């Protein structure tokens, strides 16, 4: 009877830990095209040196797999989009991460950015100029 309780306790602990870990911005996210609703890429949100970054892990459309950032500034010009760090230097502020930037690899433009977990598997990504009210929001969905 004691072994059964220990096993059930371990299973419950693992379930709680997995649920708690899933309720954070870190991990892999599916980006969605604003116009078509098609999933475009997988971006990994990760922490480095106390700040949060986002890197394009994979472009899902085979026709665009080898696309480069033609409009990116400086040394990033013509680098592959797959592998490109597009979110940089976000810092945690209560329930969102802000004070960083996001780059649109289609036009090479960089915007101020904040991200916030809307639901367990739904991430709000907002890029803006000046004030957060002047910008564009995308929703990314957690990748399996």
TrEMBL record:
InterPro entries linked to this entry: DUF2147
Domain (DUF2147): residue spans on this chain: 27-142
Gene3D superfamilies, per database record: 2.40.128.520
One Pfam family named in its UniProt record: DUF2147
Coiled-coil ranges (or none): none
Keyword Signal in record: yes
Signal peptide: 1-22
Taxonomy, superkingdom: Bacteria
Alphabetized UniProt keyword annotations: Signal
PANTHER family found in the cross-reference section: BLL5882 PROTEIN, BLR1215 PROTEIN
Protein name: DUF2147 domain-containing protein
Species of origin: Patiriisocius marinistellae
